[in-house]
Amino acid sequence: MVQVGSDVDCQEDPRPRSTAIAHSPEVRAGDVLVGGSNSAFVLPVNVCLERGSGSRVWDESGHEYIDFLLASGPLILGHAHPRVCEAVVRQLSKGSAFHALNRPALELATRLVQIPGCVEIVRFASTGTEASLHAVRLARAYTGRDKVLVFAGSYHGSHDLSIMGHRGVARAESGGVPRSAIGDTIVARFNDIGSVEDSLAIHGSSLAAVLVEPQQRSLDPLPEFLPRLARLCRSAGVVLIFDEVLTGFRLAFGGAQEYYGVEPDLVCYGKILGGGFPLSAVGGRREIMRLADPALASAPNFVHISGTLSGNPVSAVAGLATLSELEEPGVYEHLHKLGKRLRTGLARELNTYGIAGSVVGSGPVAAVEFSDPAQPGSGLVLREAVNRDLILRGVLVQLQTRFYVSLVHTEAEIDFAVDAFGAAVRAAIQRVSAIEEALAV
Ligand code: PMP
Fold first, then answer.
1. 272 and 140 together in one domain
2. Which amino acid residue places its CA nearest to atom 12 of ligand 1?
3. Ligand 1: residues whose CB is within 6 Å?
4. Phi/psi zone of residue 361: left (φ > 0), alpha (ψ -120 to 50 degrees), beta?
5. Are strands 266-269 and 207-212 parallel, antiparallel or unpaired?
6. How is the beta sheet containing 395-396 ordered, strand by strand?
7. Of 439 and 69, which is predicted with more confidence?
8. CA of 27 to the centre of ligand 1 (A)
């Protein structure tokens, strides 16, 4: 049996709600970090992580977790992979940042353009947010149009296009998004090609791009959705952008382009590309990408894409080491097998306890949807309760997003996570019935 997690009654978290910061026990995270967090996505238990190795992480109090968060996805080789560490240490002694052209970035770009698909040439950035923002800007400059079509429920990072839409109407999911950005955003429904056709019929001539996650969140596209989307974009002169920040090097080495066999015009990479260090890229057809060439700086549709640390050599060597491991034979078969084992197990537990919901995802990803489709949002309380309990049982995961599986997770660890999930669901149900009984007395 895998020995992880804290030896505690899972109903009560004995840890302080606000994690003390190392070396400054009097400082609480919420005093110095907004929301006590590094992100808008927060874990339901405060953990302050100290170290990671392989599939495991340890918090400052010494609790050990099997890590299915994997830094929100980049660490497909697990933590502190020896080849990545060795490459990074070697590069650090030669210099950590240049801004100028450097050999590791050049080598990584060469690997990217060798991937079958639309990527003929690339430009690096540091985050997935930047990659999708730059792709949209390129599409606008190329077409001379302003509007962008996104799909309800998609995610493309922290810029203004994180307008996820609600029942087909553009609605900002964040404060501070200008009305003009909302006005330029058209929202269609993923897997509903009719909703794209309708939008094109109205906005086609002013639409610069369709920005899509080819696997939206963890939902697979229906078989004909992406090919038809590509055909529609081509005939309307609209740039098709695959946001592969999540799917790139995860569903297959060639990402969603390879996995679903569809070629867009532009692709955004992030997460795995930097092997756990900040790195992203936008790439695609030379005809569009060339608009970012500084030689065209005086042209009216020149696209400014820049970043101090873009193409950083430390990130690039970490990415190169990661890609080399992923190119070994059998890697994707293994990742898919582990992912399937996890999804099957989680679905079985949902079924055992009669929970309305489903498990989606393909490849090394599993996402649990708790809600009853007839009652949107109905499963949120249950999800949070189960997530909290899972973490206390030693399984670090963010159920709001997904389980990420790495090459170093073992089948025993997957089974441990599934058992912990079942136990967490059972405990959550018992708690709800106890409350109901108490209220009835
Ligand atoms: N696009 C997609 C599909 C993503 O999943 C994410 C991050 N989860 C982003 C863009 C944004 O990437 P980053 O957090 O690196 O800015």
1. yes
2. 128
3. 72, 127-129, 132, 155-157, 213, 243, 245-246, 270
4. left
5. unpaired
6. 49-53, 56-59, 64-67, 395-396
7. 69
8. 30
Query: Which residues are part of the catalytic machinery?
Result: 155, 243, 271
Q: Which atom of ligand 1 is nearest to the CA of 213?
A: 3
Which tens digits make up the pLDDT trace of 42-63?
Answer: 899 989 999 999 999 999 999 9
Q: How far apart are CA 224 and CA 222, in angstroms?
A: 6
Specify the number of domains making up the chain.
Answer: 2
Give the residue, out of 126, 156, 241, 315, with the most ligand 1 atoms within 8 A of its beta carbon, to mutate for a pocket test: 156
- Give the three-class secondary structure for 132: helix
The token pair at 346 is 């989680």
Nearest atom (ligand 1) to Cα of 243? 3
The helix/strand/coil state of 259 is helix
Q: Which amino acid is at 434?
A: A
Residue 7 has pLDDT above 90, yes or no: no
Residue 291 contacts residue 150 (beta carbons within 8 Å): no
Last residue within a domain, chosen from 283, 311, 339 = 311
Q: Please identify, by atom number, the ligand 1 atom nearest to the C-alpha of residue 244.
A: 3
**267 CA distance to ligand 1 centroid (A)?**
13
Q: Which residue, by CA, sits nearest to atom 9 of ligand 1?
A: 157
11-15, 29-33, 45-49, 213-217 — most confident range = 213-217
Ligand 1 center to 127 CA (angstroms): 7
- Residue 26's pLDDT is what? 60
- Give residue-wise pLDDT tens across range 178-226: 988 999 999 999 999 999 999 999 999 999 999 999 999 999 999 999 9
- Considering the domain boundaries, does residue 1 fall inside one? no
Domain co-membership, 157 together with 248: yes
Distance 268 CA to ligand 1 centre (A): 10
In a domain, 86, yes or no: no
Any idea which of 119-133, 161-175, 407-421 has the lowest mean pLDDT? 161-175
Last residue of a domain, one of 311, 346, 377: 311
pTM over 0.90: yes
The rounded distance, in Å, linking the Cα atoms of 188 and 168 is 6
Query: Does one domain contain both 348 and 266?
Result: no
Check whether 154 has a pLDDT greater than 70: yes
